[in-house]
Amino acid sequence: MSLTYESHGHAALHLARAASLAPSPHNSQPWSFVEEGHDQGFQLHLDDARRMPLTDPGGREAVIACGAALFNVRLAVRRMGFRPAVDLLPDPGHPTCLARVGYGIHAPATCEEARLAAVMPQRHTHRGPFTDGPVPDPVLDELRAAALAEGIALQLVDEPETLRLLAGLVRVGEEAHRTDIRHAAELRRYVGPYGIPAQACRNHPDGTLLVGRDYLRQAPWRYVRRPERWSPRTGTVALLTSRHDSRQDWLRSGQALQRLLLHAAGHQVMAAFHTQPLELPALRTRIRTLITGGQYPQVILRLGRTTELWRTPRLRAADLLTRADASSRWWP
Ligand SMILES: Cc1cc2nc3c(=O)[nH]c(=O)nc-3n(C[C@H](O)[C@H](O)[C@H](O)COP(=O)(O)O)c2cc1C
Fold first, then answer.
1. Cα–Cα distance between 128 and 138 in angstroms, integer?
2. Is the CB of 61 under 6 A from ligand 1?
3. Rounded Cα distance, 113 and 72, in Å
4. Ligand 1 pocket check: which of 190, 275, 284 to mutate, most ligand atoms within 8 Å of Cβ?
């Protein structure tokens, strides 16, 4: 059982706000938080009611988003001067409790941690062509190392044949979504003041080599660009892959995703997501066998620089936070 108080501890609110800045599929924000009394700990829960039933029936993408939120919580705890003590999936009896973060020993944040925490509010998702060419190699090396630090591989797709193959599979996935009326209706629900602002989708989804999600199928006012073949404005294409495909792997993938996105944002590099084929089991298997050498593809990204900035709103952190009753340990 849990109690919702009028006010929360400052530390818990700070962590909930940091978590809420994470990316999530269509800004669905499929998370909630529990504050354990007297700064004992902070729990991250999957809010299954905000998972998209058609796009993400198994909850893989929702858990990845929660993993990204968890990375922000870890970083915020470091910024407060403590080492986070993280327990993934701490209670098998309560599978929606994805992580518990306790406050470990006191240790000031490093310069790099402070830098990553500072860019947290600046990171945002891009849609459409980038302004520049591919991301410089030293930055890519840094992003690869960031993902690897979470046990996840960042595979660059720069060989033209493989890039064409991946672009084709993204297109097949996107076409399947566009022609499915129920799926299109599910997507439409996420465009607007509480999901993704329409302005953030104004670039035509077919304007890059990897086609984008068609959030505004009927909107007459969006920019219309011809589909490009390979163009430097596609940016750098990359996949996050894991060795296995359990919920733990999804949580690790989410943490790796956020870690690399923050490193990228520190270099003014933003990401566009193209996860459509990973939502269809047959296409995901094809990517796994033909492109990622048997590793499980978790996220498909384009990375590059952009001058466009559209902020997506977030639910109020205080509304997502409850306080654990003293007699209960994990659950609200
Ligand atoms: C697992 C996952 C899949 C996503 N898939 C897409 C996608 O296919 N197309 C897209 O435009 N954005 C995608 N996004 C990005 C979200 O739309 C974005 O994070 C959300 O709208 C919040 O905006 P922000 O990242 O700018 O804060 C995805 C995010 C996650 C975590």
1. 24
2. yes
3. 11
4. 275
pLDDT tens for the 332 residues of the chain, in order? 444 445 678 999 999 999 999 999 999 999 999 999 888 999 999 999 999 999 999 999 999 999 999 999 999 999 999 999 999 999 999 999 999 999 999 999 999 999 999 999 999 999 999 997 789 999 999 999 999 999 999 999 999 999 999 999 999 999 999 999 999 999 989 998 888 998 899 888 988 999 999 998 877 777 766 666 667 789 999 999 999 999 999 999 999 999 999 999 999 999 999 999 999 999 999 999 999 999 999 999 999 999 988 889 999 999 999 998 644 444 44
Compute the distance from residue 41 Cα to the ligand 1 centre, in Å.
28
In the chain, the domains with their CATH numbers are 2-122+313-324 (3.40.109.10), 137-304 (3.40.109.10)
**Ligand 1 centroid to residue 2 C-alpha, Å:** 31
Q: Which phi and psi (to 5°) does residue 125 adopt?
A: -80, 140
Q: Where are the alpha helices (DSSP H) in the chain?
A: 10-20, 60-79, 111-119, 137-148, 160-178, 181-188, 247-266, 281-290, 317-320
pTM of the model: 0.95
Q: Is 213 in the pocket of ligand 1 (CB under 6 A)?
A: yes
CA–centroid distance, 208 to ligand 1, in Å, is 17
Q: Closest Cα to residue 212, out of 276, 165, 271, 260?
A: 276
Neighbours of 85 (CB within 10 A): 14
